[in-house]
Design goal:
By secondary structure, the protein is of the alpha+beta class. It has two domains: about 160 residues, Ribosomal Protein S5, domain 2 (2-Layer Sandwich), CATH 3.30.230; about 140 residues, GHMP kinase, C-terminal domain (Alpha-Beta Plaits, 2-Layer Sandwich), CATH 3.30.70. It is built from nine helices and 13 strands. The strands form three sheets. Strands 1, 4, 5, 6, 7, 8 and 9 form a seven-stranded mixed beta sheet that branches. Strands 11-12-10-13 form a four-stranded antiparallel beta sheet. Helix 6 runs antiparallel to helix 7 and helix 8 packs across helix 9. The longest helix has 21 residues. The chain is globular, with a radius of gyration of 19 Å. It starts with a strand and ends in a 12-residue tail after the last strand. The structure holds ligand 2P0. Ligand 2P0 binds next to helix 5.
């Protein structure tokens, strides 16, 4: 079982698509509100992997990504059998809600255990990375940094120890729809065509350094400011891609306006947005009801309040 994470300093762009090595290091918060539970069994005699998500067979590109990952586990473990994979998501899949972060972290944990591999957490993070970049971070709970690294060994995630502070994310669910362009395609297109990509990579180095300092101090305003500028910068790289990639909807902008109004009214609230129209708003737990009510009124969205989630782990044999 693994929980989703939301990046405060984003990963956007691979310098090695096969090994999933990113151009930038990233830093995230694992959330308690959404998770994936996955079981894997290797079956003697079966010809084909059997993969279900929420009880439905997984097909097409999604299936290919999972079977590629199982092939990697088979290669590393020496297993040859086909697998039965059953996954259940509490998070809408493919809607920019980081379902692949919890999905591939849970799969890496379950598949490596079923194959008899005994991986420490760093090795598990490196394995999860090969399924989906953000999954490297969901191996750990709380705040997590994924070091970009320069090869398979040096690109892994680890926890960031911070001063304790009660930061939560109000998740503003604007759309549950499957996004039109996957993150993988959108980031490749951005790297290849956006003139703003390289300046963003450069500014991301400063954002990460500043974020570490802000977390050490437990300074929510600094954490929020850095997260918001980094996310809007990432979306700017997509707006400048040719043709543009635009995940934001009118309701996304309404939530951003609302967050600004909340700040003007003295409430510390900051927005971050991933590859979809949904917005996550960072604030103190004490302000979460005020923030959630304001963004619902401003945009008609549904809200969930999420705190820090745990490490990926085995629950009831899963
Ligand atoms: C992140 N996102 O840091 C960034 C910010 C979305 C926006 O990681 O191609 O599903 O599988 O490595 O991890 C979403 O991309 O991409 C993502 P792949 P992934 O959370």
């Amino acid at each position: 079982m693994a929980h989703i994470n939301v990046a405060l300093v984003k990963y956007w762009g691979k310098r090695d698509p096969k090994l999933v090595l990113p151009w930038t290091s990233s830093l995230s918060l694992t959330l308690d509100a959404f998770w994936t539970t996955t079981s894997v069994r290797f079956r003697a005699g079966a010809m084909e992997d059997r993969i279900t998500l929420d009880g439905q067979p997984v097909i097409g590109e999604q299936r290919r990504r999972v079977t590629d990952f199982l092939d990697l586990v088979r290669l590393k473990s020496g297993r040859t059998n086909a697998a039965v994979v059953e996954s259940v998501n509490t998070v809408p899949t493919g809607a920019g809600l980081a379902s692949s972060s919890s999905g591939f972290a849970a799969l890496a944990l379950a598949a490596s255990a079923a194959a008899g591999m005994e991986l420490d957490k760093r090795a598990l993070s490196r394995l999860a990375r090969r399924g989906s970049g953000s999954a490297a971070r969901s191996v750990f709970g709380g705040f997590v940094v994924w070091h970009a690294g320069h090869d398979d060994d040096s690109s892994y995630a680890e926890p960031v120890h911070t001063k304790r502070f009660d930061l939560v994310m109000v998740v503003a669910l604007i759309s549950f729809d499957h996004k039109e362009m996957t993150s993988s395609d959108a980031m490749r297109h951005t790297v290849e065509t956006s003139p703003l990509f390289w300046p963003w990579v450069e500014s991301s180095v400063t954002d990460l350094k500043d974020m570490h300092a802000a977390l050490k101090l437990g300074d929510l305003d600094a954490v929020g400011e850095i997260a918001e500028r980094n996310a809007l910068g990432m979306h700017a790289t997509m707006f400048a891609a040719r043709p543009a990639v635009r995940y934001l909807k009118p309701a996304t902008i309404a939530v951003l306006d609302c967050v600004l109004d909340l700040r003007r009214a003295g409430v510390s609230a900051y927005a971050t947005i991933d590859a979809g129209p949904n917005v996550k708003i960072l604030c103190h737990r004490a302000h979460s009801s005020t923030v959630a009510a304001a963004v619902r009124a401003a945009s008609g969205c549904v809200t969930t309040v999420a705190g820090a989630g745990p490490d990926a782990g085995v629950v009831d044999g899963r």
